[in-house]
Each structure stands twice: as C-alpha cells, then as structure tokens.
Amino acid sequence: MCGIVGYIGHREAFPIVLEGLKRLEYRGYDSAGIAVYNGEHIELCKTKGKVSDLEDKVKAEMNTSGTVAIGHTRWATHGVPNDVNSHPHYSNSGELVIIHNGIIENYASLKKELISRGYTFKSDTDTEVLINLIEDVQKNENVKLGKAVQIALNQVIGAYAIAVFDKKKPNEIVVAKLGSPLAIGVGENEFFIASDATPFLEYTKKAIYLEDEQMAIVRLKKGIKIRKIKTDSVVAPYVQELQMNLEQIVKGGYEHFMLKEIHEQPNAIKDTYRGRLNAKEGLIRMAGIDDNIERFLNANRIIIIACGTSWHAGLVAEYIFEDLARIPVEVEYASEFRYRNPVITENDVVIAISQSGETADTLAAIKLAKSKGAFVFGVCNVVGSSIARETHAGAYTHAGPEIGVASTKAFTTQITVLTLIALKLAKEKGSISHSNFHYHLQELELIPAKVEKALLQDDHIKKIADIYKDAKNCLYLGRGFNFPVALEGALKLKEISYIHAEGYPAAEMKHGPIALIDEHMPVFVIATKKGHYEKVVSNIEEIKARKGKIIGIVTEGDEAVKSIADHVIEVPETLESLSPLLTTIPLQLLSYHIAVLLERNVDQPRNLAKSVT
C-alpha cells in the first residue's frame, strides 16, 4: 500500500502535497518523492526513507515554486526501497510523470514489448512501465493524455490508483482507480487528489470517491470529467460532504498516534453504539440489519472473512453469534478464502470486516461470495470505502481515523458492532431471554466507562513492560471468548516491538507450547473470573511449576491468580461475552510501552502498512 497526493489550483502546491504525504505516511514509508511543475518544466525530488528525509533533500536540491504537484510515499512491492525506485516516475521523454498505488501484474510482458520499441528503464518498478506505456499510446495513437491513459489501462492487469501529469497539458491531472482508493477534493478553482481525504481536510470538505474502473480528468476552470475506463461512458460526479475534521488526525498531545488511539477507545465504542443501542428501552436499531433481517434469520450459516486484527475480531464474533444467536459461524482468512474453492450458497450470509474498507484480499473474497449468490454484509470504518460500496449492506464502526499501523480502536469497535448484530439476531430468534437481553444491553452501555478504568492501569503496565522488554519470545494464553484476544495481544507485540510472540488457547499449552516454558519465558494469561476460570488457574499453576514468568490479566479483586502470578493487571468485571473489550486494553498498552522502551517506530513499524491493498 502506498499514499498518493496531488494538487492543482491557485496555491503553492509543494507545502500542500508535502503535508499530505506526512498524513499518508501510515500507508507506506519505504521511500517518498514529489514532482512540482514550475510553469516551464517538472522539478522532481525523491529518496529512500521517510517523508522527513524527502523534506531535507528538497531543501538542498529543489525549486519548489509552482501550483501543480504530485507526491508519493511508498510501501515497496516491485523493486527494493531506494532512490531510483521511489515515485514519481518520468516517462522516457521526461514530459509525463506518474504516481501509483497498486501492482501491475503483467508489467514484465509490457516492459519486454516496450524495450523492443526502444524504451529504456531506470527503475525496477512496474510503475515506470505504466508511464511509458501511456507515453507510447499517446504517440502512436496521436491522442490526448486522458485517452492515452484509458487505452493503456485497458492493457493492464492488476490494481492501481494513479495520477498522471503531462507538462504539455499544464492545467490538468488525469487520475484513475481499480482496487486502490482514490479521493478528489473539490475546492474553489482548485482540486486535491489523495489516497484518502486527510491531506485536504483543511481546504475543503467536498470529496468525490472514484469507483473501480473509473478515471477522471481534473481540469482547472473546466472541472472534473469522469469516465468508465472500459466503456468510455460518462459518469456524473457524486460529491460527498466529509464528516471528519482536522483535529481527529493530529496527535493531540500524545507521543504517538497508537497511544492516542488506545485512549480514544471509550469514546470510539460509545460513538459506535450511539443511535443504535437504547438499553433503557431494550432496543437495537441498525438499518443494515433491519432492512435485511430475513436474510440473517434464514441463513444456513454466517461466514466471516477478514485479515489480521479484523480476523481476530471475527473470531470473537464467532463465539458471540453462536452463543447468543445460535447461528453456525465460520471465520476465514480472506487471503486464503479467495484462492480456494469454498462452498458458498445463496443461503449463506458473509460478513466482511476491514478497518480501511480497502483490503484487497477481503474485497476479492467479497466479489467471490457475491458471484456465488451469498448476501454480503460489510463492517468497516471508512465511509465511502471500496468495501462499503461493494457489499449489499453494512455498518460503519465510527471509530474515527486510525493512523497508527497497529490497529487498536478498530478491534474494539468492530467487536462492538458485531455484538450489536448478534444481540439483535438473538432477540429476533428468541434464543436469548428477555432479561438476559436487557442485561447485555446495560452491560454494553457501561463498557466505555470500564475501558476508561482499565486505562488507569497505564503506569503499572509501563513498569511491567520495562521488566519484559528484553524478552526474545512470549506466549499469550486465553480461553473461550478471550482466546482471540490472546492472538491479538501476540500480534500487537510482534507488529510494533519485533519480539516473537504466539497466542494459544490455554488448554492447548500442554499440546506443545509447554515445552518452551522456562524461567526466561513471559506468559501473558487472560484469566478473568467469568468463563473457564478454574481451568485457566490450573494452566497457570502448570506454568509456575516450570518457572515461567506469569503476567495475569484478571478481574478486579482477584486473589487466586494474584497469589500465583508474578504480576497481575486488573480490569473491571463484565459479562464473559463482553470481556474482550476490556482484556485487550492492557495487552495493547503492554505492546506499546515495550516498543517505546525498545525505541521502535511505534506508528510505522518496519515492513508494514496500514492496510494491504
């Protein structure tokens, strides 16, 4: 995944694009580059490293004046991260320049053909092939840039969000999209181009989100002309009013976005159930469910598809749906689901979960499920995202922008939405008693306050993190609803501290992992009083007998685990089905503090990007 930014208008373009790249750096930070048209020629500067490295290099090498610019921050796919492979890329003539997020799968065959026609290549990227293909079409077909882009893209296999500038057409930028996000900000005689809306929030709240296989010619004075790439038919622009504000995407006094987002969870959870949950009246209102209730009630099963942290949220949902609504659930990695031949019928409901709404594997799995006749329901955070548009119905999490690469509030808000769905279906099916239903609603409404209380353990958790920051391996154990939390806790530690960690069901410890336990092995055990508490305590005793270091996540007032464990972190008591919303908090903070103590780049861990597009 990469971030692209562009500007054309009446302002100095460079500072707008540079700031936009900083806001999109969560999408990739292997290298960065920027091209500015100064009225005569294109000034270009790019470098391996972060946007800050680009900023330093620009000061030394580049004239930044001009009102047209495009920029790129890269997560490397084709070609190692270095200056040459960084975007933007010139065509051979130097008259065209491109930025690209995505992968051109047939670039090798296209490159071979272009080489036979005399084209040369400086980089190892698929993107340089694309810009020269566009130039080749432009010359041979004697067409304008927009038509050349359209013809070229019809020869391309893969995914892309691109912006192309031709210095012979200085008043326009051509953009196109397939499988990668692209937003166009609409101002007063100025336009902004970006992978998401964050780079232009302070300039305009009006945005157009291109659909797949659409391209747009963005012209000063003449406006925006959108066409379908394959059919050439004109599409009327749909301008949306953005709801987010600039304050949501700045750190607000926190050292890192991840820490800010951990502490935003009480409000994020509340915003997610706001307007949907009325505990006093015993009501759950969700339009996406209400309008399609029969599809859910008559489903043979629910298939949940997701990747990464969203997959862990799906595992929690499996326990909740089966326990409360008594509907069979299967949870699938979208990345595997799309590449096998899964059995899907018209009586299945598929729930696709993605924070960004742009995860490529999840999108492909959605299309596969739809082709088999399944009803597909999306759970995502980003309004107007590809998954929101591709699914039959859905629900937004309302978590607000999540900039830190390691998801935190995405996890808890996804569980919140899925819990609301499960409770609503359970009520409709009659699989939950009236009193138990009301009790669940009341407890869910109390979760934000209980998360706030769990966050008060931060200083205590930081001290524990200091003790175990030099560990080489860690185990995370949980049972029932909290087994997925153990997986998520291990993932967080791996992602941002680079310490190897594994999550297991606590009962599986004796089937292999117990061999790893010695006095050097920290074992994080989720041992809340609800559920299989006595069984987990027995597991802890077995770890203790082998000199393992035990860090217990326990219910307030717990004495049994406290008497055995080396450390305990308390969370408020709640229903077992809701406990993952609380037990995940200390594990997020532990991972964060260990990573900070190890001087890792918490918001931008190596080799990762916010979502895989």
Note the topology.
Blueprint lengths: L2 E6 L4 H11 L7 E7 L4 E7 L2 H11 L6 E7 L14 E2 L5 E9 L2 H10 L9 H16 L3 H9 L4 E9 L5 E7 L4 E4 L4 E4 L11 E4 L4 E6 L3 E6 L5 E2 L4 E2 L15 H7 L1 H9 L3 E2 L4 E2 L2 H4 L2 H5 L3 E6 L1 H18 L3 E5 H4 L10 E7 L5 H12 L3 E6 L5 H5 L2 E4 L12 H21 L4 H22 L2 H11 L4 E6 L4 H15 L2 E6 L16 E6 L5 H13 L3 E7 L4 H5 L2 E5 L8 H18 L16
Parallel strand pairs: 18-19, 18-20, 20-21, 21-22, 23-24, 23-25, 25-26, 26-27
Antiparallel strand pairs: 1-4, 1-10, 2-3, 2-4, 5-6, 6-7, 7-8, 8-12, 9-10, 9-11, 11-15, 12-13, 13-14, 16-17
Helix pairs in contact: 3-4, 4-5, 7-14, 7-15, 10-14, 10-17, 14-15, 15-20, 16-20, 17-20
Question: Could you characterize the architecture of this molecule?
Answer:
With 613 residues, the chain is of the alpha/beta class. It folds into three domains: 3-102 and 159-248, Glutamine Phosphoribosylpyrophosphate, subunit 1, domain 1 (4-Layer Sandwich), CATH 3.60.20; 252-454, Rossmann fold, CATH 3.40.50; 456-603, 3-Layer(aba) Sandwich (Rossmann fold). Helices cover 37% and strands 23% of the residues. It has 20 helices and 27 strands. The strands form five sheets. It has an eight-stranded antiparallel sheet with strand order 3-2-4-1-10-9-11-15, covered by helices on one side. The model has no long low-confidence stretch (mean pLDDT 92).
